[in-house]
Specification:
Blueprint lengths: L12 H35 L3 H29 L1 H21 L3 H29 L2 H31 L4 H5 L1 H15 L14 H24 L3 H23 L13 H30 L5 H7 L1 H21 L2 H17 L9 H29 L6 H27 L9 H29 L31
C-alpha cells in the first residue's frame, strides 16, 4: 500500500529485485563521480578546454546536486519514492547521453549540471526505497548489502574509467549510464513497491533550494574565473553577491515554517561541530582527488587506466575495513577516530609531495594512498554515525541529508578555490613543470584543512547522547559520496 511500509523480505524474489534496482541506480551516480576526475586530461585535450572548464566539468554536477538534494528527498517523501527515483534515473541517463555527445566544453558543463539535478532525485531515493520497502528485521542487512555493493562499484570505478578513457574514449564514461538506466527503470516499475510519507505536509522550499544553488554558483564562478580575470568587477561582484545570497538563504530558512534546512538542528552543539568537521575533511578530499588524478597523468605520465588503478588502495581499504572502524568508534566514542582520521589523511596528503616526474609507484604513490585510505577508514564511518546520533531519532534522515549537502558544497568550493590559492593558471595542466609546481603548493592547503578538522573534532565532539539514533556502521566511500542519506523521519 502506498504510504505504508511494505515489509519485503530480503530473501524473497521481490527483495532481490529491490536490491538490484537501488544498487543500479546509486551505481550510476557513484561510478560516474568516481571516474570523471580520471577522464579530465583527455576531456581537456579533446575539447580544447582550459583548467577552468575542467573545474566546471566537476563543479557543475556538484553545484546542482548540493543545492537540490534535500529538495529531492522531500519530493520523494511527498509524491512517491519510487516515482521520484525513476524520474531521477531517466533524467540522469538523458543528461549522461548529452554529456557523451557534447561537441564542446560549454555543452558538457551544462549537461553535467543537468546530471546533478538527476542525481539529486535518485541519490536520496535509493536508500529511501530500502528503508521504506524492507521488513524491519531485514533493513539493516539490506543497507549493508547496498553499501557493500556500492563499495565494490566505487572500487571498480577508477579502473573502469581509466579503461574506458584509454580504450573506447572518455565519452563512454557517460554513455555507460544509458544501458544501466534501461535495466534499472523497468525493474523498478515492475518490482519495487511505491511508498510515501503520509505525514509529509507543507510547501516545498523551492526558494531555499534556489538561493542555496545560486549562492554557491556565484561564489564558485568568482573563484574559478579569478585566476584568468583577476579581481575584475565581474569576479568581485559575483563573489559578493554569492555571500549576500548565502546570508539571505539563512534568513529565509530561519523564517519559513517548513524550511529545507531547519536551523533548529544547529542548536545541537554536536551536530554543528560534526558539520564543521565535514566541511573541512570533504573540502580536502575533493581537492586532493581532483588534483591527484591530474598530477598522476600530467606530471608522472600515467595513462588514464594507470591513474585510476593508482587510486584503488584508498577505496579497497574503505570497502574492507569501514565496518570495523564503525564498531571501534561505537566502543570508544567518535572523538578519537574523528581526530586521528583527519591527521592520517593529512599525512597521506603531504606524502603526495614526493610524487613527481620519474616517481615510483611502490615507493612514492602507494604509501600516500595507503595512509590516505587508512585515515578515511578511521574517519568516515564514525562521521556518519555521529551525524545521526547528534539529533533526535525522528530527524536523523534530515540531519544526514544536511550533512550530505554540506559535504558536496565543501567539495564544490574546494575544487574551485584550490587552483586559485595554489596559483594555477588556465593552461597549467598542459605543462608538467607548471602543474607539478602548483600541485606542491596545493597539497599543504589540503593537509591544513584536515588538521583544522581534527582540531575541531578534538575540541568539540563527544560521545552520542542517551536516546539518540546510533546506526550500524556502514561502508561508505567519500571518493563518490558523503554520509548516506536516509528518508526524513526514519531513524
Amino acid at each position: 500500500m502506498e504510504g505504508a511500509r511494505v515489509d519485503v523480505r530480503l530473501s524473497s524474489a521481490q527483495g532481490r529485485w529491490v536490491m538490484l534496482t537501488t544498487v543500479l541506480g546509486s551505481a550510476m551516480a557513484m561510478v560516474d563521480a568516481t571516474v570523471v576526475n580520471v577522464a579530465l586530461p583527455r576531456v581537456g585535450e579533446d575539447l580544447d578546454a582550459d583548467l577552468a572548464a575542467l573545474q566546471w566539468t566537476v563543479n557543475a554536477y556538484m553545484l546542482t546536486l548540493a543545492g537540490l538534494i534535500l529538495l529531492g528527498g522531500a519530493l520523494g517523501d511527498r509524491f512517491g519514492r519510487r516515482k521520484v527515483f525513476v524520474v531521477g534515473v531517466v533524467w540522469f541517463a538523458a543528461a549522461s547521453l548529452l554529456c557523451g555527445l557534447a561537441p564542446n566544453a560549454g555543452i558538457l558543463i551544462a549537461a553535467r549540471a543537468l546530471q546533478g539535478v538527476g542525481g539529486a532525485l535518485l541519490t536520496p531515493g535509493s536508500l529511501a526505497l530500502i528503508q521504506a520497502s524492507f521488513h524491519p528485521d531485514d533493513r539493516a542487512r539490506a543497507v549493508g548489502v547496498w553499501s557493500g555493493l556500492g563499495g565494490v562499484g566505487a572500487a571498480v570505478g577508477p579502473f573502469l574509467g581509466g579503461w574506458l578513457v584509454d580504450g573506447p574514449g572518455w565519452r563512454w564514461v557517460f554513455l555507460l549510464n544509458v544501458p544501466l538506466a534501461l535495466v534499472c527503470v523497468p525493474v523498478a516499475l515492475r518490482h519495487v513497491p511505491e511508498s510515501r510519507d503520509p505525514q509529509a505536509r507543507g510547501r516545498f522550499d523551492v526558494l531555499g533550494a534556489g538561493l542555496a544553488a545560486l549562492a554557491l554558483g556565484l561564489v564558485t564562478y568568482a573563484l574559478i574565473e579569478a585566476p584568468d580575470q583577476g579581481p575584475s568587477a565581474v569576479v568581485a561582484g559575483c563573489g559578493a553577491a554569492g555571500v549576500v545570497l548565502g546570508a539571505v538563504f539563512v534568513y529565509v530558512e530561519k523564517r519559513r515554517a517548513d524550511p529545507m534546512m531547519p536551523l533548529t538542528l544547529f542548536a545541537s552543539r554536536q551536530f554543528t561541530a560534526i558539520n564543521a568537521v565535514t566541511l573541512c575533511v570533504y573540502a580536502a578530499f575533493s581537492g586532493f582527488f581532483f588534483l591527484t588524478a591530474l598530477q598522476l597523468q600530467v606530471v608522472v605520465g600515467y595513462s588514464a587506466l594507470q591513474a585510476g588503478t593508482a587510486l584503488l588502495p584508498t577505496t579497497v581499504l574503505m570497502l574492507f575495513l569501514s565496518s570495523k572502524s564503525g564498531e571501534l568508534a561505537q566502543r570508544i566514542g567518535p572523538r578519537i577516530p574523528l581526530t586521528v582520521g583527519p591527521l592520517l589523511c593529512a599525512g597521506g596528503t603531504l606524502l603526495m609531495l614526493r610524487v613527481g616526474e620519474g616517481s615510483s609507484y611502490a615507493a612514492d604513490v602507494l604509501p600516500a594512498m595507503v595512509v590516505m585510505g587508512a585515515g578515511m577508514v578511521t574517519l568516515v564511518a564514525p562521521l556518519t554515525a555521529t551525524v545521526l546520533a547528534s539529533v533526535a531519532t525522528a530527524r536523523a534522515g534530515l540531519a544526514s541529508g544536511i550533512n550530505n549537502a554540506a559535504a558536496r558544497a565543501a567539495g564544490l568550493v574546494a575544487v574551485a578555490a584550490l587552483p586559485l590559492l595554489a596559483g594555477m593558471g588556465p593552461e597549467a595542466y598542459r605543462s608538467a613543470a607548471e602543474f607539478g609546481e602548483t600541485f606542491r603548493r596545493a597539497m599543504p592547503l589540503c593537509a591544513g584543512a584536515l588538521v583544522v578538522g581534527a582540531v575541531i573534532a578534538w575540541g568539540t565532539v563527544r560521545g552520542p547522547r542517551a536516546g539518540a539514533c546510533v546506526p550500524q556502521s556502514r561502508v561508505n566511500c567519500p571518493l563518490t559520496a558523503p554520509p548516506l542519506e536516509e528518508p526524513a523521519g526514519e531513524g
